[in-house]
Design goal:
The chain is mainly β. The protein has a domain of 175 residues: Alpha carbonic anhydrase (Carbonic Anhydrase II), CATH 3.10.200.10. Strands 2, 3, 4, 5, 6, 8, 9, 10, 11, 12 and 13 form an 11-stranded mixed sheet that branches. Strands 1-7 form a two-stranded parallel ribbon. Helix 3 packs parallel to helix 4. The chain is globular. The chain starts with 63 loop residues before the first helix and ends in a 21-residue tail after the last helix.
Length: 274
Amino acid sequence: MRSPSTDTRKTVIASSSAVLLAMITGCADDATPDASSPDATAQTAPGEVPAQWSYEGATGPQHWGELEDEFTTCSTGAAQSPIDVPSDPVLSSAPIELDYTNSDFQARDTGHTVELEATSPQNITVDGTEYTFQQMHYHAPSEHTLDGADYAAEFHFVHRSNDGDLAVIGVLAAEGENNPAWSPVIEAVPAAQDEDSAEVTGLTLSSLLPESLDHYEYDGSLTTPPCSESVRWLLLQSPIELGATQISELRSAHSDNNRPTQPLNDREVAQIDQ
């Protein structure tokens, strides 16, 4: 699908605060063993062979719920992510307060995506709750869609509160001009494939975000096994732009690593009251 323009419709899906489990790693394998994220992989006991899952065929999204007992929610859950954000909603009234500082990062290829982990604490606050950054990873093309339209890529900034609740900032990326702020991250993607990890030095996460933090909010899930629910999704309204070469670098490492959109079910579209 063609990427929509940057003046996409405003939307918010009422959400309850996230209460999340202990076995998550990252959105689409987009997290580390003890770092929660909406694309995650269940942890396994020492010596245990982890369940194999993928984005196609017999181990693809349609079959995730059959692969392991821990993955059942992928098939039975009623509040799954990603979703198609419906047209004509309103933006969340819960602002995102950033406390991101200059830091070094490690980029790691998980086999499903490349994720970026900070070497020093990074935080956000939403509705008075502080969440600590766990990792950032990507999907290409995007997982969330806006009124049926997808984007070239989507980045998930995964955060966790002291109570274990997850809040994920979703950033959509459209093809456009080359984005210098993202160059260090994009350059680390092939490097992370060649080595165990790659370093990204002197980066501030806020430089990767669009100027406006207006967002759509809803209660969803991890977008990879075990598909755990009660994840607080904060999908930014304004996309970023990446150049064609930058998008090609992402897709060269991992392409079509996006879970299809899931039914909205009884989740309402409503403004969040603080």
